[in-house]
Design brief:
Strand content: 5-15%
Shape: globular
CATH topology of the largest domain: Rossmann fold
């Protein structure tokens, strides 16, 4: 493949006449290099130097590099050194948020200080990792918690909100990652009010994006990178076009995650959150509660009934498996009707408040997703109101698979493309940037 180097941890060849960036990257990691001079315990490794040289060459040529670097190679330093020495605007993507934090808070500062570069770095996560002041205040006003412990946790979040600068919930180490409070104090792309939010000027997501736009090195994770490549706008879609290089660490995780992000799903939690948000947004709008309370309750009930009807199924299976259960088929129809009823109830209220308009758009989107998973055409809805709020259904495709997955209290209906190489290749070629994919496990039997 033209412009692509495939390498392993050893036997990496660079051009006979090395450029200054390639040479400087190799030298920085040598026995007499800048990292050995200032980092206690640093041990030069030939494989690390070779990998850094290959990364530097890919940066210069805006090429694509696949690099399998086994444990002990030191691949993090091997790509950080050329990224910092090149001065090119670089996005580094890691496999998890924990690795992202480690890279940004520990590895990157050490290498940057050793090299003496003044490049600016920024850490950027998806919006679900940042406190949303608008939702925090709304939850404070509702004051409805399931237990005293949950109320105490909320008070801790509220106290922390007054002193945090970044709004990153990872700062609250004692808060569980699956805390039921998180959806109440964070936003999603669906329920964010955007510039109409009264806290827009203090928004932690907006501030994080601004820092990333001004930075030379931006550290993200695969979920955020793929969400934006798939145009789901989770964090930094406006930053992607300016990047001159991408480094994808733990790249072996990319195909499975890409299938998720280039597909489409509908799960129980967003449905329940929509119902509760619709009721919560009624405050201050005359007649809204009377109009929305019943359809919102019906949506919650339909979601629970579908989950109960799926109890007889395996934890994961295909759409045809689910459709063999008559109760599940009836529950899917009831869920569709509930979404349509809520959409129609929200229609005359959408102009009354930004939150209600956002709820209407979410209800319509959820119904569209459900219809596409069920593979209905426009004739699949014979209700009189279908013409008003019926789904904009896309045709069935032989290029995806429809499946479901159960969790203890929820479900997910998913459409997954069978091949994600096309979308990934299109985004990579459109960027005209260097792309480095590295991991300890990329090859099988010596072949990629």
């Amino acid at each position: 493949m033209s412009g692509v180097e495939v390498i392993a941890t050893a036997g990496i060849d660079t051009a006979p006449e090395e450029s200054a960036l390639v040479r400087d990257s190799r030298d920085a990691l040598s026995t007499d290099g800048r990292l050995a001079a200032v980092l206690p315990g640093f041990h030069p490794r030939r494989a690390q130097q070779d990998l850094a040289a290959a990364v530097a060459a890919a940066f210069e040529d805006r090429a694509v590099l696949l690099a399998e670097a086994g444990t002990g190679t030191g691949k993090t330093f091997a790509y950080l050194v050329p990224a910092l020495l090149s001065g090119r605007r670089t996005i580094i993507s890691t496999g998890t948020r924990a690795l992202q934090d480690q890279l940004y808070h520990r590895d990157l500062p050490r290498v940057r200080d050793a090299l003496g570069t003044g490049l600016r770095a920024a850490l950027l996560k998806g919006r679900a990792n940042y406190l949303c002041r608008q939702r925090l205040e709304r939850t404070r006003g509702e004051n409805r918690f399931q237990s005293p412990a949950q109320a105490a946790d909320f008070q801790r979040i509220a106290a922390w909100s007054a002193r945090t600068r970044m709004g990153d919930l990872a700062e609250m180490e004692s808060l569980p990652e699956d805390s039921p409070l998180l959806p109440l104090v964070t936003s999603t792309a669906d329920n964010c009010l955007g510039s109409e939010c009264p806290f827009w000027g203090e928004c932690f997501v907006v501030q994080a994006r601004q820092r990333a736009q001004e930075a030379d090195i931006v550290v993200v994770n695969h979920h955020l990178l793929l969400a934006d490549l798939a145009l789901k706008q989770e964090g930094f879609g406006e930053i992607l076009p300016g990047a001159e290089a991408f480094v994808v660490d733990e790249a072996h995780q990319l195909p499975e995650l890409a299938a998720q992000f280039f597909g489409e799903g509908l799960s129980a939690r967003p449905l329940v959150e929509l119902a509760r948000d619709a009721v919560a947004e009624c405050r201050g709008v005359d007649g809204a509660l009377a109009a929305l309370q019943e359809p919102a309750r019906a949506l919650e009930q339909a979601t629970r009934l579908l989950r109960a009807a799926m109890d007889v199924l395996p934890a994961r299976g295909t759409r045809p498996q689910l459709l063999t259960v008559p109760e599940a088929v009836e529950a899917l129809e009831a869920l569709d009707s509930a979404l349509m009823a809520l959409t129609d109830a929200l229609a005359p209220l959408a102009d009354a408040a930004p939150g209600l308009e956002a709820c209407q758009l979410r209800a319509r989107d959820h119904r569209d997703r459900l219809a596409r998973w069920r593979d209905l055409d426009d004739g699949g809805h014979d209700d009189e109101s279908a013409g008003q709020s019926g789904p904009a259904v896309v045709p069935s495709s032989d290029d995806d698979v429809r499946w479901y997955e159960l969790s203890p209290r929820g479900f997910r209906l998913q459409r997954t493309p069978l091949d994600v190489s096309g979308p990934l290749r299109a985004h990579r070629e459109r960027s005209r940037a260097a792309w480095v994919f590295t991991s300890a496990t990329l090859a099988v039997e010596g072949r990629f």
